[in-house]
Design a protein that fits this description.
There is one protein chain. The chain contains 15 helices and no strands. It is mainly alpha-helical. The chain has 3 domains: 112 residues, no CATH class; 70 residues, no CATH class; 66 residues. The protein starts with a helix and ends in a 5-residue tail after the last helix.
């Protein structure tokens, strides 16, 4: 129990009864829920809370609220709480100060996305309300750092661009460091998604026989870079992190292409594919 309390306190800095109680409420709300990766869902709100603590260390109440940010969206459907009223009471009661409890409930309600509302419209509605926007951006940041799907990459990327356009830069109340982190991870995720698409296309093509037999990794790297260049990705310069990933995957791409070419070339001779 002592180690557990120490771990919980590290999420939001100093130990506090509010953080302990918010964590208990979040654990109940997400009981039995898992992420796409298979890990317990509670790991996500904990990670979001740690992002809030990193960029807004002076606001421990907001860090505790971040632990609860998905509770209203998930707990009822999971059957972990009987009604929204019961859960609302639990959220507010997680804070010793009644005013903090009311603020926590307000923020969590603001963060609960009505599916009938387009995502960008929902995100833009948070402008001018710093507390829920901080948590939402922390939520997006963690999701983009957790093997996002192409759909998530586009959804979050479009939302961030809309926020930037509507704000003329950094949204009011958002830490410059937090904003830079979200912009960087959006760019990185979009680049990675494009890289995967190009690699997938190249793997379906036949490389030149001399490239296959010499296993020239540099040639494959050049082929990937050339294809990416045609997308306009490098118009503002070549992202170093992307080139590093291309080089990392080049040998894997070449091996796959070689094995595919070898299989096709020797299918008749080796008897592959015959009934």
């Amino acid at each position: 129990m002592k180690l557990l309390r120490q771990y919980i306190s590290e999420i939001c800095g100093l130990a506090s009864a509010d953080v302990d109680d918010a964590m208990a409420t979040a654990q109940l709300a997400h009981l039995g829920q898992t992420r796409r990766s298979g890990e317990p869902y509670i790991e996500h709100p904990m990670a979001v809370a740690k992002i809030i603590e990193k960029y807004y260390p002076e606001d421990q109440t907001l860090c505790a609220i971040a632990l609860l940010h998905d509770t209203l969206e998930d707990a009822i459907d999971l059957g972990n709480v009987e009604s929204a009223d019961d859960l609302s009471s639990m959220i507010a009661a997680s804070f010793g100060d009644p005013e903090s409890g009311r603020e926590a409930l307000r923020v969590v309600r603001q963060l609960t996305h009505e599916k009938s509302v387009p995502y960008e419209e929902y995100i833009l509605s948070l402008l001018g309300d710093a507390a829920p926007l901080k948590v939402k951006l922390a939520d997006m940041l963690h999701n983009l750092m957790s093997s996002p799907s192409p759909r998530q990459i586009k959804k979050y990327g479009d939302a961030v661009l809309s926020l930037q356009a509507a704000s003329g830069g950094i949204p009011q109340g958002i830490s410059p460091g937090h904003w830079r982190a979200i912009l960087d991870v959006v760019d990185d995720s979009q680049n990675e998604s494009l890289l995967r698409s190009v690699i997938k296309g190249l793997m379906k093509e036949n490389f030149e026989p001399d490239m296959l037999h010499s296993r020239r990794v540099n040639d494959v790297t050049d082929a990937v870079v050339d294809r990416l260049g045609k997308t306009g990705l490098f118009d503002r310069g070549v992202p170093v992190s992307l080139i590093n990933r291309i080089e990392k995957h080049a040998d894997e791409i070449l091996k796959h292409a070689y094995e595919t070419h070898h299989y096709i070339a020797n299918a008749g001779e080796d008897g592959f594919g015959e009934s």
